Amino acid sequence: MPKTNLDQLDVNILAALADDARKPFLEIARDNGVSGAAVHQRMSKLTRNGVVKGSQLLIDPSSVGYETCAFMGFFLNDPSRFEMVADELKKIPEVVECHYSTGKYDMFIKLYARNNDHLLNVIHERLQPLGLARTETTISFKEVFHRSLPVKDTPID
């Protein structure tokens, strides 16, 4: 997707919502000296242009029983099957991210499992049938931080 030209108001809106996605548009408008309708229109434009991909509720995985976070690199038997494998990965709820990658792996995913036994089951029952030559798995002990991009540093065109 081509880079979208942003002005200072766009950057200020994105920065405010990246910091607190529940911040009311009227409060953002007040902070920037514009109307609430102007912020709403800008958000519609940013969404339409693909800058904003939506919003989500972030849930602490361990609080809902998912104690194991794993990153897996895939080596595909047939790399031309990227799209088919990606489509099948979308059907596995434990897989929360999927990336085509360069370097060592054909694909790289992040997934959550209730425990190591559940992880093993997901690997054997759901992932291996996708045509994987082999996988390499790294288990995360603890997420240290997770943050949004530094929108305030976005160059203005």
Task: Explain this structure.
With 157 residues, the protein is an alpha+beta fold. It is built from five helices and four strands. The protein has a four-stranded antiparallel beta sheet. Strand 2 (95-100) and strand 3 form a beta hairpin. Helix 2 (25-32) packs across helix 3 (36-48). The chain is elongated.
User: What is the global morphology?
Assistant: elongated
What's the Cα radius of gyration? 20 Å
Q: How many distinct beta strands? A: 4
* pLDDT averaged over residues: 92
Q: Which residues form runs of ≥5 with pLDDT under 50?
A: none
Order of strands, main sheet, comes to 2-3-1-4
Largest sheet: 4 strands, antiparallel
Total helical elements = 5
Helix content: 25-40%
For this structure, the quaternary state is single chain
Q: What are the secondary-structure elements, in order, as H or E?
A: HHHEHEEHE
- Kindly, what is the distance between the CA atoms of the first and last residues, rounded to a whole number of angstroms? 17 Å
- Based on secondary structure, the structural category is alpha+beta
